[in-house]
Amino acid sequence: MNTEAIMAIPPKRGGTLLWTLALTAFAVLIPFFISGYQRTLIQKSLLWIPAVFGVYILYSLLRQVHFGQSIFIGLGSYVTAFLAGKYYVTNELLILLPAGLIITIIFAYVLGIFITKRTGFYFAVMGIAVTMVFWSLVYKARTITGGSDGISHIKHPCLATFPLSDLGFYYVCLVVTVCMILLMQRILNSSFSLQLRAIAGDLDKAESIGIPVKRMQNLAFTIAGANAGVTGVLLAFAYNYVGPSTFDWGYGGNFVQSAIIGGVNSFAGPIVGVFGFINLEFFISAWFADLWEIIIGLTIAIIVVTVGEEGVTGIAQSLFARIKSKMKNTKESTYKNG
Amino acid sequence: MLSACITCILNALPIVSYIIMLSFSLNFILYISGRVSLTFAGIYLVGAYVTVSLGTFFLGNTFSLPAFLAILLAVSLMGAAISIIIYGIFERFLTTDVHRMIATSSLLMVFSGIVKLNWGTTPVTYSAPFLKMGTSEIVGSIVPNYYLFMFGFAVLLMLALAYFLYRTTWGLRFRASSLDGDRIMAQSCGVNQNLVTMITFGISGMLASLAGGLYAPIAGASYGIEGNALLLAALTIIIGGVGSIGGAILTAFMIGIARVVTAIQMPILELAVPFIIASATLMIRPFGLWGKELKH
């Protein structure tokens, strides 16, 4: 039914680890050479990466579009805003991260039962529907959530009782993101990922060889939601504000668009895609602020219609492969002639 | 009790006709050509804004039915043209459902960006038809005539569509290439698939822009209404099933009345109720209450 899903081979381990180390070293050193605003942009990109990996897992393994990533970002953000802002309990990251994670996992599991009931169009639409429902609930429950004003004045985070400066929080975000990337790589190399690929290939055949299809789909959805929950908790501290627009389905669509820019057939796709998307957002809103939606919409549409889900990484891979084969050919021809 | 029920149903009429037209706009493409296309929500948005602009420009505060119908005709032709053009130059080249959904949802952003450039983000209103048509009394409850006009318009459109699909030769060709029939077989029997898909997209655009145009005098046009339209249309398909006109109308009544009742009783759940109905439907009958198991 869907052969290209099976064609995508899991990434090799060694190369990715080297790349991760090099990029991490770069991200550790970069704050000393740039201004504070540029650092917040990099921090935002780093925080988006886990959420985009959630979209990536569902897209590259199950071939489903998940527009509802903003549900779990919103849930994580509001949990943080309640516990560290409005009804102040604690601003300890070691408590808030697990708390946000547990709540998003519970919600993702329960919603996953309904959302993963059918695939394709229905999956995407149920995701959109849930974001709208949460948006309207948060928007209308003015006494609890602050309505359209949202919640600001979130306390600065502290880690193991040490209060964090802005730079310190940047490093916390970096550590969390790198841990999530390594975890994602572990998941993509596991037998779980192969089972999901089998489900994407043919649902009935996968069921007949004994894969628990419904449970696996729900598990993948829960993992995606948990990723977004981590992003949400940290984004609330980074922005120091949470509003109902966090639940907007257009915001959830931004993560799909990031994944599409980067490409979903390679492990580096989400990382490249997030940095590409946020740079695009920054430059377009600096130069043509009014045209932002038109330009990004047309860009994504053109990318989808020309290269499909290959994205930037896919183009780069095929270019490298072509150059390699050309060099090989010239070598062989020189051997033949000599 | 009875009069309260009738008041609820009468007040639900505009939202019911809005849902009927929008959901069938999506349903028709899904059923006949087996494609997913979310651009109808953008066409709905543009239709609402264009109706408001044309109405305030030509009619202002006065109102005459023939002129309003002429504006609606112009808007519906515009919607059909936009839909066909986008299909012809863009959507034709998309190969899988996943690509179609991502690309058309990006096109929705383009539509709302264009609307933002032209009309700004402040809501615009044109309520002359709604105010000037007067009211009438049905079994003790007062209802604006515009509600009845809108509902009548939607039902007439659906009847015309049903007549076209089930009683004419062209309708037979459409049904032969739909999900119920067999596309390749129809093509080998001489049905021009390109033409059929093109007309399908045209009818879908017409329905979407008419939904915008008819609902604009009641609710006005504001930036960001397309999300709600997309949500209601898609949930109606989940509940009603693909490809049944009667199912779409019944589901629209169900959602519309449920929304009106919750908007009065507990406004916080107004948007959640259609979602709850849809989730329950997915658990009981995954292919919709009136739908068949199609190979989509």
Classify the secondary structure makeup of chain B into a structural class. Answer: mainly alpha
- Low-confidence segments of chain A, given as residue ranges, are none
* Straight-line N-to-C gap of chain B: 44 Å
Shape of chain B: globular
Contiguous uncertain segments of 5+ residues of chain B: none
Q: If helices are DSSP runs of H or I spanning 4 or more residues, what is the number of helices of chain A?
A: 15
Oligomer state of the chains in this structure = heterodimer
| DSSP helix fraction of chain A | over 70%
SS field, number of helical segments of chain B: 12
Largest contact between chains: A-B, 46 and 45 residues
Give the strand order of the largest sheet of chain A, numbering strands 1, 2, ... along the chain. 1-4
Tell me, what's the shape of chain A?
A: globular
| Rg from alpha-carbon coordinates of chain B | 19 Å
How large a portion of the residues of chain B is in β-strands, by DSSP E?
Answer: under 5%
Mean pLDDT of chain B: 90
* Class computed from helices, strands and strand pairing of chain A: mainly alpha
Level of helix content of chain B?
over 70%
On the 0 to 100 scale, the average pLDDT of chain A is 86
Question: How many strands of chain B?
Answer: 2
Biggest sheet record of chain B: 2 strands, antiparallel
Structure, described:
- The complex is a heterodimer of chains A (338) and B (296).
- Chain A contains 15 helices and four strands.
- Chain A has helices at 3-7, 13-29, 36-62, 69-86, 93-115, 121-140, 142-145, 166-188, 191-201, 203-208, 213-239, 249-262, 269-287, 292-307, 311-337, and strands spanning 151-152, 158-159, 162-163, 241-242.
- In chain A, the strands form two sheets. Chain A has a two-stranded antiparallel sheet. A two-stranded antiparallel ribbon of chain A has the order 2-3.
- Chain B is mostly helical.
- Helices cover 74% and strands 3% of the residues of chain B.
- Chain B contains twelve helices and two strands, in the order H-H-H-H-H-E-E-H-H-H-H-H-H-H.
- Chain B has helices at 2-32, 39-59, 65-89, 97-119, 128-132, 145-167, 169-176, 183-188, 193-219, 226-240, 245-265, 272-284; strands at 135-138, 141-144.
- In chain B, strands 1-2 form a two-stranded antiparallel ribbon.
- In chain B, 50% of the residues are buried.
- Chains A and B meet through helix 6, helix 12 and helix 14 of A and helix 4, helix 10 and helix 12 of B.
